[in-house]
Amino acid sequence: MSSPISSQFPNAPPAGKAAEAPEPALNPQPVARAEGDTVELTLSQRVYQLHTQGQRVSQIASSLNLSEAAVNSYLNISTKR
Fold first, then answer.
1. Is 3 within a domain?
2. What is the per-residue DSSP string for 55-80?
3. I need a surface site. Which of 7, 48, 59, 80 has the fewest CB within 10 A?
């Protein structure tokens, strides 16, 4: 005894009809950048960003016109021995 395939797969297209092809995905278009899309980072965020990019404390201090003690403070680095 056999049962029709439609009873086993209720969401299948009817026999003899091919499933409709899905619509092609739209190609994403580049987004135009307006002046309002810029985000200003705080000084502490800039210090952290440069540190995570691998810059040394002395480099960060020099590029942001800070003392090394200030950079260490932003990074919670203790220089006490």
1. no
2. --HHHHHHHHT--HHHHHHHTT----
3. 80
